Each structure stands twice: as C-alpha cells, then as structure tokens.
Amino acid sequence: MNVLNIVAFVAFATSTFTRSTDPIIPQIATAFSVDPGTVALLATAFALPYAAIQPVLGALADMFNKTRLMTGCLLVLVLASVVAAFAPNIELLFAMRVVSGIASGGVFPIALAVVGDNVPLAQRQVALGRLLGAAMIGNLLGASGAGAVADLFGWRGVFVATALVGFVVLVVAVIGLRRLPDRAPGRFDLSTLGPNYRAIFGNPEAKWCFGVVFVEAMLVFGLFPHVANLLAAAGEERASIAGLVIAGFGLGALGYTLVVSRVLLLISPRRLTVAGGMVMCLCFMALALRLSWPYEFVSFLLLGFGMYFMHGFIQVASTELAPAARGSALALHSMAFYFGQAVGPVVYGHGFTDIGVGATLIAGGIGLAVTGVVTAMTLRRADMAAT
Predict the structure, then answer these.
(1) Is the pTM for the entire model greater than 0.90?
(2) Which of 22, 43, 72, 277 is the most exposed, having the fewest neighbouring CB atoms within 10 Å of its CB?
(3) Within 13 A of 310's CA, how many CA atoms are on the CB side?
(4) In 3-state terms, what secondary structure has residue 57?
(5) Which residues have a Cβ under 8 Å from the Cβ of 113 and sit 6 or more positions away?
(6) 322 and 329 in contact (C-beta within 8 Å)?
(7) Domains in the chain, ordered, with CATH?
(8) Tell me: the pLDDT tens digits for 191-201?
C-alpha cells in the first residue's frame, strides 16, 4: 500500500477520536449527574493537552523516526479509549480525554510533516487536501457514528468503537510503514531545539500563521461541543441528530478535498481564503436564526467547505516556515490550532450566557470574515508557492 495512503488511514483513525464526544455530551451528563456545560469541557480536556504537547512532540519528530512516533502515539490513544469506555466517574473520563489529547498530538501533525517531507511544494496543497480528506471522513464518522452508536448502545459503546477502529489501523500502519526511510538524524540532540525554533520564528510570517489558525479554530470548533445542548434546548434530544449535524461539517470539508485541485486552477489561494471567510460568516448568520436541524446541517456542511478554503492556505504556509525544522513548525501550527479549540468552548459558553446565542454566533461569523481577509493579506509566500 502507498505510504501516503497508510498515513491517511492513520489520520482517519485519529480523527474519529477527536469529535466522538460532541454528540454524547447530554448522555454523559445524565449518567454522572453533571451539568452539561461542564461535560462540554471534555473537548477542552482533549484540545488543551494536544496543543501544549506540540513543541515537545514536534522536536522529537525532527530528532527521531516520524512514523514510529506516530504509531506509538496511536497505540496510547487506543488504550486511553478502552479505559474511558469503562470509566466509573467523570474524573477518570476527563483524565482519559487528557491522555487522548496528548497522544493525538503525536499523530496528525506528524502525518502533515511526513507529507511535507515526501511531496514537492508545488503539489503539496493537493496532497495535504487528500490527507485532510481522510481526517474529515474520520471526523464525519466519528461524529455521526458516535451519535448512532450512543442511541443504540449508550455512550460507553462510542469509546469501544473508536478503540476498535484505532487498533485495526494501528496494525496496518506498523506493518506498512516499517521500511519507510526517515530524514530525522535518529538521535536525541537538545542542541537542535534552539536553532530550529529560531529558524521558525525568524520567518516574519510565523506569528501570522499561528495567530490566524488560533482564531479560526476558536471561532469554528469552539461551537461544536455546544451543538448537542443547543439542539436539546430546542427539543431535539437524539444524539444521532446532533452527530449528523456536526458530521455535516466533515462532509463539507471532504467536498473541499475533492474539488480543491480544480478550484485552484480558477482562483488564487489568497482569494480563495477570503471567500472561505465570507462563506463561514454567512453560515454563522444562518445558525444565529436557530432554524430546525436540517437547516443547521446544511449550514455546517457549507461551513466545512468555507473553513478549509482558508485552512488549506494556512497549512501550506506552515510547511514552508522552516523546511529544515518542518516537524517543529507543523507542531507549532497544531498547537495554535488546538489551543483555539480548547479556548473556544469556554468563549462560546460565556457568550451564550452573557449576550445570548444569536448575538454570539453573529459575532463569531464577523470574526471569521475578518480572519479570512487578514490571512490573505499577511501570508504571501504560500500564495506564490501554490502558483
């Protein structure tokens, strides 16, 4: 099997873990008699350690074999999901989401670095788009599948299912990647840390690259853990419907991966980024109307398209911040991305309480439109590289 296909399978499996708790927040809250707003912070418990561990794992990826580190982290992720399935209390469940976040931090960012190491720059946005497609299918099935499994077998069945998926892909990855050559020197050398990070932050685009991806993730993904609670407040309590609505985002992102190569022939990446911000803004305005769930599904589907119009551009820029320290650069990119996801649920929670759901969603949409414009204005090199 092609190496990039195997890496895509690993990205797929990891992504099923990421959004799997979003549709089952109300079920977990009921099972442990905990406020749903508190349980929604399971997303933060995953995202915050994912972000915090990135500088360490990124440096290790540049020192050691990337694929071995990636499969080792996938093993930890599978074991944490098994423990979560049998958690007797909310505290252990939160702890396992923390462990899962740390382990996931060593999978997808390193997968991006493997693509960066093996695909020429001119073809990289398309290759990254395909890797992203695998991840989005994982998100899609992780959300919709989690809702369906929870309705049939309860929330614990969700963690069993994700563990099984992860184990199967782990076996495939260990067998398929064992002979892949790696550019890392294969030794622990702290002396490389300083030069690597100086090279990254010596690039003036670094602060914009990491800043805009933080805001993007905060405004988009911060909403996801609240979807099930918002639907329940509107009278729709089925976890499968919450999962379906969230899966609309993954479906839209998957659509992006199928059309990105053709779209880039018609419009520059920079203009596509601005268009993505505007599309996301319109989607948030539609969500602010609080229509029935089929309309929200469509909004999330278009949101997935719009976000990755912007995000693909940022990813390409991140791969070129410091090619000799690509693992570290992409780890910092993921750190900013997941710090945004960690902060987002808290921001939306306060916003919904303080100024209302509609006003908060409108503010989020405006923020995304502005972010699209700022991204296009500041990240010039990715535009030149893609063209």
Answers:
(1) no
(2) 72
(3) 32
(4) helix
(5) 61, 66, 326, 327, 330
(6) yes
(7) 3-179+204-386 (1.20.1250.20)
(8) 566 777 788 88
